[in-house]
Amino acid sequence: MDATARLSFTIPSAEPALAARLRAAVDGKAKPPGSLGRLEDLAVRLGTIRNTEAPRADKAVLLLFAGDHGLCEEGVSAYPSAVTAAMVATLLAGRAAASVFARSVGAEIRVVDAGVTADLSDHAGLVHAKVRSGTRNAAREAALTPAEVGEALERGAAEAARAVGDGADVVLIGEMGIGNTAAAALLMHRLLPAPLERCIGLGAGHDEAGIARKRDALARAAARTGATETFEVLAEFGGLEILMMAGAALGAAAARRPVVVDGFIATVAALVAVRIRPEARDSLIFAHRSAEAGHALLLETLGASPLLDLGLRLGEGTGGLLALPLLRAAAAMLSDMATLEEVLAGAA
Q1: In the chain, what are the domains?
Q2: Which residues constitute the catalytic centre (predicted)?
């Protein structure tokens, strides 16, 4: 079965008149119209995604997918691939930035092995969804087979469906993978499309020689194939954690759940999801504008106005977690805030 058939579920649209009713409800709250700015727009968006006038954002689940990249053989990262497994262990121990932020905002993290090179079978608490142990080196050959692309997308969608089945009101997507800004840059280059140079950033931090190696490796990977069709591009460049994030975005959208998109790499996954199913765009809420090169252009092309702009470029879903209280405040405004009519009645 090809990837398109595997993702044949329906992404429902909102009731046509709902947005107008939600806007009227927001405008009728005990405040001057528009005085809560973009939070009012966010409240309307939450309602239309959930197809209700009383959306909730209480239970939030961050699906954090981890994977390794064969491109690291070309020196595209300042760190070795072994750091991916070490960071997975740190996440599971509750010591990573995402772990700390999740506790502070009351969100659950599910760490998913999408394609880490190391054997993580003995790690308690890890979701085992490994498609293969790292991608192949995209500078020399296709990173994935078409079957592996389909499997990664399908497993990501399944993780989102499982989170929703466990009561998630909001699904956040994040990643961990040494070298994944390189794969993301290649995907952006072909799927946006955009000049490769505009897609390449510092990633986890490079000196001048390191960024030169990264640019050279990605130029060779791009020159190796002229693929432009979405599924062909995904097979050529990977990576598994990016594809699982895309699948999770599609799965959450099909279940009428808002998908909170983190930074550059998660936004590339969102781009993949939109290229596969354009109607998924309406369910995507972009958490922040990353400092990583290319992210501003991605957001502009997707017509996205991120909620935060803090100069973040860590990944791990950290920006999404920091934006989560804004979703909860927007939902609470609809459900709990007094109307102007109620206030005026009390003053009469």
Answers
A1: 11-55+333-347 (1.10.1610.10), 60-326 (3.40.50.10210)
A2: 316 (proton acceptor)
- Which burial class, exposed, middle or buried, applies to 308 when counting CB atoms under 10 A from its CB (0-12, 13-18, 19+)? middle
Alpha helices in the chain (DSSP H): 3-6, 18-27, 38-50, 82-92, 97-105, 146-165, 180-191, 208-224, 230-237, 240-254, 264-276, 295-301, 318-336, 340-347
Does residue 316 carry a catalytic annotation?
yes
What is the bridge-based pairing of β-strands 170-176 and 259-261? parallel
Of 232, 316, 341, 342, the catalytic one is 316
Amino acid at 111: V
Longest CA–CA span in the chain (Å) reads: 76
Q: How many CA atoms lie within 13 A of 174 on its CB side?
A: 32
Neighbours of 157 (CB within 10 A): 25
* Angstrom distance (rounded) from CA 154 to CA 90: 27
Q: Which residues of the chain fall below pLDDT 70?
A: 1-6, 204-205, 348
Whole-prediction pTM: 0.96
pLDDT at 98: 98
